[in-house]
Amino acid sequence: MIYCVEDSEGIRNLVAYTLNMTGFEARGFPDGAQFFQALAEAAPDLVLLDIMLPGEDGVSILHRLRSDPRYSAIPVILLTAKGEEDDRVGGLDAGADDYVAKPFGMMELIARVKAVLRRCSRREAGVLQLGAISLDRERHTVAIDDQPVTLTFREFELLKFLMERPARAFGRDQLLDEVWGADYEGGPRTVDMHVQTLRKKLGSAGAQIGTIHGLGYRIGGGEHAQ
Q1: pLDDT tens digit string along 133-159?
Q2: Which one of 26, 145, 194, 206 has the lowest number of neighbouring Cβ atoms within 10 Å?
Q3: Domains in the chain, please, with CATH?
C-alpha cells in the first residue's frame, strides 16, 4: 500500500490512479491530519509526501515519522515544486529517501517508487537498530553498543520479531505462533522464560522489552513493568 499526501485533488487522484493501474494499491489524503488517522490504522509500504500542505507541512510530517519508532523505517518520497531547493535539502536532511520535482511525469514517479522500494527491501534484509541493540539479520548476530551478545536461535528469532515491529504489543500465544510455530506444543510460559533470559543477556538494554500486563510483550515504547 502506498499513501499519497497531496492537497491538490487533481494530482492526488492522478497519482493514485496511476499507481493502482501499475500494480500498486494506493490511497490519497489532502493533509497531515487525515494521513495520520489512516496511519494509526495501517502503515503503508511507502509515502508520497507533498511539502506544501495546508496546516502541517510535509517536512514537519516527515520529522514526526522519523522520530516515531513505529513508522521511522517507512520510505518517503517528497513531492516538491520546481525550484524549492531549500525544501528539498531540508527534506533529505530530515530523512526523505528521494524527491520528485513538480511537474513530474507519471512514469518517472513510478520509476522512483520502484527504485526506493528496491533499496528499502535490501535495507530491510540487513541490520535492525533500537537504542543500544543492534541485530544483523543476515549474519544472525546481536550486539549491545558494538559488544557481541550470544543468543540461542529462539532468543534471536524472538528479539528479531519484536524489533521488526517496535512499540507494538503482542500476546504470548501470538508470539508462540509467530516465533515457535503453530505446531509447537509448549505453553505461554515458554515465552516468559525466553523473555527473562533475553533481558538478562541484553543487560541494561533488556529494559527495552516491556511487559504488558494481561497481554504479553513489546519492545520500545517504555521500560518493562515489574
Answers
A1: 989 888 889 999 889 999 999 999 999
A2: 145
A3: 2-124 (3.40.50.2300), 127-219 (1.10.10.10)
